[in-house]
DNA sequence: CTTATTTGACCCTA
DNA sequence: TAGGGTCAAATAAG
């Protein structure tokens, strides 16, 4: 029998690489749409070439089918409809784990590490009697709760409701902060790839799912965001970080207004980056730090050491208990290596 | 009856 | 080995 370990590592990696490449391609295309024609071809760089370069590994990935197990999902990004009745990550029986299951678990943990990660801090108005974190528009299923050392409140673990059916591996951790019980620190892993993600548009998402939204202003929360995305251990990467001017929001409860942040990838538009005047009000009003990743173009990574912690807002650092460092140890070789020096590129 | 949550046990990583 | 993350049976809710 063929070695299942290598097989599973292979398709898991394919899924993740496909996910990352697809996202990168989409963002580069968005970038292209918003850039002036003169900026698109600047010196050695051509965005069109980047998109084309991304197409190659994507095509290669999509051509490769998982070997050995025909029931395994092939794509994670909706390129291929997926129906699955049983989670591939573990069978019903708990013990003893087969080698296959152990491999799955090992790869599952590794895969989680390379998922993009960002953190939000959300203040909830106590007047609403809101016990949990605000609805962000997606369907989450709580799968665990854990008391964390040196914290007063347990940490709750959520995953996408459609994980098994649609292979949507988005997850989030919710923890109430010790310093301010009305403040929740929410850490997201992975982008939603389920149907709901594509159907929900910014501004609609929490309206659709949050019944409290129908109560008009009853659900009032102030929303301060500190977003932090990580996609570690890409063979190549660039992290053009930017910060938006922080405006003084009233401390009183405000309706959650940065729905655009529900999908961090789609929310980061070139407009946000290059033209402050084009910023949508929600983004302007929120204090946002978006370290972001894209395939890189050129020779070497300009910022030798991405100390991503620096990119988290001081506020978030102040209130959020430290989460486990999820740096990946999976080397991903995409077969091409590009880097563009962001500041120079956008000159 | 179906779906979601709770919670103790198991497993992995540092 | 401790702490954190996940599973899945039991339970609750709709």
Automatic annotation (TrEMBL):
It is found in: Nucleus. This is WRKY domain-containing protein. Keywords: DNA-binding, Nucleus, Transcription, Transcription regulation. It comes from Papaver atlanticum. InterPro entries: WRKY_dom, WRKY_dom_sf, WRKY_plant. The keyword Phosphoprotein does not apply. Residues 135-192 form the WRKY domain. One of its GO terms (molecular function) is transcription cis-regulatory region binding. GO terms for cellular component: nucleus.
